[in-house]
Design a protein that fits this description.
Blueprint lengths: L8 H7 L2 H25 L15 H15 L2 H4 L7 H8 L1 H7 L12 H28 L1
Helix pairs in contact: 3-7, 5-6, 6-7
Length: 142
């Protein structure tokens, strides 16, 4: 009969060594600590622009969103088909900006003019921002 092979004593001791398990447990613990601390290390501060032309303030964004919804639901504009209501919609948003950008040459039905639309959006954001600043100044002066 053949006798089972005996493994060298060094292999048996290395695989059952408690130091192997301790090192493995320490590595797992370190990985878990790093993973738990990662969100804290990665967090950053939001940058806020001080220039009103580059970024509208959050209150201005909310006000713009509300104004757009009101104008979309405006009875004068909502009765028109979408291709015809853009001039009405822009006038509803801001009469002064509409006169500045589209006053001399209004959009034709179905026309899309991205350049003038961007100018109108910038004007509208500045208009809302200046209204908010005026409100703040009035509140501060009281």
């Amino acid at each position: 009969m053949t006798q089972p092979k005996k493994e060298p004593a060094s292999v048996i001791q290395a695989s059952a060594s408690p130091s192997y398990y301790v090192v493995f447990a320490i590595k797992v613990a370190l990985v878990l600590i790093i993973l738990l601390l990662m969100p804290k290390l990665v967090e950053g501060k939001r940058r806020r622009s001080t220039d009103p032309q580059t970024a509208a303030r959050p209150s201005s964004r909310v006000e713009l969103r509300v104004l757009r919804k009101e104008c979309m639901n405006n009875q004068e504009c909502s009765s028109m088909i979408p291709e015809e209501r853009m001039n009405c919609f822009f006038q509803c948003l801001s009469e002064s900006c509409y006169d500045k950008i589209f006053g001399d040459m209004p959009l034709e039905d179905g026309e899309v003019d991205y350049d003038r639309y961007r100018l109108f959006e910038r004007c509208l954001k500045q208009d809302i921002w200046s209204r908010n600043e005026n409100r703040k100044n009035q509140i501060m002066s009281k």
